[in-house]
Hints:
2 copies of one chain form a homodimer.
Chain A: H1 20-33, H2 37-40, E1 46-48, E2 51-58, E3 64-65, E4 68-69, H3 70-84, E5 87-99, H4 104-121, E6 125-133, E7 141-151, E8 163-166, H5 172-181, H6 198-205, E9 211-215, H7 221-233, E10 236-240, H8 248-257, E11 271-274, H9 279-286, E12 291-297, E13 304-307, E14 313-315
Parallel strand pairs in A: 5-6, 10-13
Antiparallel strand pairs in A: 1-2, 2-7, 3-4, 5-7, 8-11, 8-12, 9-11, 10-12, 13-14
Helix pairs in contact in A: 3-4, 3-6
Amino acid sequence: MVATLRSGEVVTLAHGSGGKATRKLVEELFARELSNPLLDELGDAAVADGLAFTTDAFVVKPLFFPGGDIGELAVNGTVNDLAVAGAEPLWLSAAFVIEEGFPLEDLRLIVQSMARAAEHAGVPVVAGDTKVVEHGSADGLFVTTAGVGRMRATFGRPQAGDRVLVSGTIGDHGFAVLVARGDLRLETALESDTAPLHWLTASLCELGTQLRWMRDPTRGGLATTLNELASSAGLTVRLDEAALPIRPEVAGAAEILGIDPLYVANEGKLVAVVAPEAANEALARLGPDAAIVGTLTDDSPSLVLLDTALGGSRIVDMLVGDPLPRIC
Amino acid sequence: MVATLRSGEVVTLAHGSGGKATRKLVEELFARELSNPLLDELGDAAVADGLAFTTDAFVVKPLFFPGGDIGELAVNGTVNDLAVAGAEPLWLSAAFVIEEGFPLEDLRLIVQSMARAAEHAGVPVVAGDTKVVEHGSADGLFVTTAGVGRMRATFGRPQAGDRVLVSGTIGDHGFAVLVARGDLRLETALESDTAPLHWLTASLCELGTQLRWMRDPTRGGLATTLNELASSAGLTVRLDEAALPIRPEVAGAAEILGIDPLYVANEGKLVAVVAPEAANEALARLGPDAAIVGTLTDDSPSLVLLDTALGGSRIVDMLVGDPLPRIC
């Protein structure tokens, strides 16, 4: 496999998209070189000895956007990676790479926002580090969080007949950040959905092995996350287009920009797979904005099929390229 | 205290030095806003429930230098933060922020180096993340590692009469990186001392409460680390200049550049405080390059005093400003 990363090749924005290029880079470089049983799982968090451990770098641009900022995003993102692994988040760390000349007032706003998000989630930031690089050597501020959690539950395994649920509308974060960049000349009231998910995941964990699988569909969106599910479970994910919750503002922006909300990052949404007999209970636990959006089947290869509103069906591939760089 | 970070102020390279400005930023912004009992300790790692947790961002320039590279540094740096907290390092995470256009071959060399360092230390990298930013928005590559460890031991408390030991020569890493930058027009065989310290710290932990305190003197060097000791213990650290192990190449570079090796980063050296009756045993455990370099006293305020080779003594303050930006 290594031969497919050719000599002279360089890192591209697509390698950071969360889609196909990211997966290739992870599988053929990071996972290959650093291989060990825990890393090889390639989950959102490593799990062993009753603990979960995860990390995420945040490079979102702009740093402040409707509904949140990089600080809140960094706290919630790592809380959520632990949450969907079935863990109770215990501790966070935060490391800052700051460009010389960055306003201390903005740094304070971001750290205050992290503090509020950590307080809200009930997960303290217990360790940190700060590095400063020369003006021009970074774009303002990057934040990397890591998190440790205690495992609550082990799930069942996804199987044919299981239902796929999402906890609310998709695409809100990505479109909110795109609009905030201002280069779209689009006026909407869209806000990022950044939020912690660990209360929702704790509630679903009470379903025991009727809960099969959880993820937060961030970079690459719901489409990429469900492709990973199809691939790892060896099943088909059949999505019902009409059931997908999408805000009218997102649908409008999506149409104007030609960007499919299925590929757009969410930062406060849960996708869960549950046994069919637990679907209504799970739906109730996920709240009023949740929806049952699909079913797992074993009658086709490992892929995601979208049954469209018009009665047809099409393959939903992983993200190729990156329509939305630096979305998180 | 908050008023001392004034409106309109910006982040400077000194804020990343590990010295006085860093301490002020940490105390008046990060620790103040994110305050919680674990973070408030401001140790190299947070410790609770028998676990230790830490993080470090690495922005060293150049990425490859004599004796190591950013990957090896990132692995050893986090292993060492856990080690000096008295923990057995269990797991590492690694998050990469990569500039678009970065050569994949260099990325592979760095990841291979991390893999070798992790293998050598016996601590796997179990979680990771990769983000890519546009060309010009980062300087090649930044790596942030975090680590989880299991606590081995609790130390005694530093007290008057205790001895201060270092495990080997000081200043090697910082001067090696400076020379590697090439703008000094200096030719030396100096190499970074990057190395894992957890075997040494495990050995010292066997001394029980006769072991009082451990740190790895990275950014800001031995002087800054010992100032933190003096301040937290409320004691004077008396250093014996003649006992400080310094390579002739480092002494030479220091003289030419006018940079005191006491303020220069080490990446594979341990400084330990032990009870006087355990000093020789600790010295033997630290190996042939170790030295007893000082004593704690309670006859002066909380500061670091250097007894010079000429018979005088001078105050060794914390680092002010940053003579060596991006040294780790």
